[in-house]
Amino acid sequence: MNEMEDGPSLSSPSQTKNNKLSPLYQFVVSKHLKNRQIDSFAFQQLGSRDTPMLRHPQRTSLLIWCGAVLCMVFTLLLIFVAVSILVIFLVIQPKDPVFDTPEASITSILTYPPAFMDADITFLANFSNPNTKLDVRFEYLDVELFVPDSDNPIASQILDPFNQRPGEAGFVSIHLQPRSAHLPLDLAVKLQNQEQSNRVAIDIHSNFRVTFKLGVLHYTQNLHGKCKLEMTSPPNGFLLKRSCKISRW
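The chain above was modelled as a monomer; its predicted structure follows.
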């Protein structure tokens, strides 16, 4: 009976709590606590990084606004110019002004060695606006006198700018007096032979800029006019025939 009473007995709960924890259990618990601490620290860091994103946006500077306004104005100006050119070319279809010399006279031509010349030439220049809807302004007019086949003018004259209404024609009397103008020797000999045969050839060039106007719409074009004249010999030389053309440049 005593041996049966001395058998194994059950431990109480208080005794179980007081038992020492196993090493494996301690490792698992410590690792779990460390992971929680790391997650808490990461959350705090994430919150601190997100804090600047919650700030109010800064106002755009006045300089940037001014630059944006200037770009918009420049863009609108380019669009307006492009539309103006399209309207003038596609709808109105402007015609180039006319340059002509209906009258001309030679008072004197004198050539002397080795290859120089003096002359006195007067001609009437006709500038006309063939357009029926466009006003035209002539600017930077330069009229030059050439001996045919020569690259250099022997005389020139600058004209004042002027305006023309649609269909209007204007006449300008131009008096040129080349003095001691140098010519290549072959051209000087050729001019002497022309004077003896009573057939003197003269070229007149005109460079100018025209501005076509339709209300507030403007379009500018540079033009070059050329007239080839054939005249009788001085002192009473007059125009026999002419050929004029105009081109863009």
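The two ends are 139 Å apart (CA to CA).
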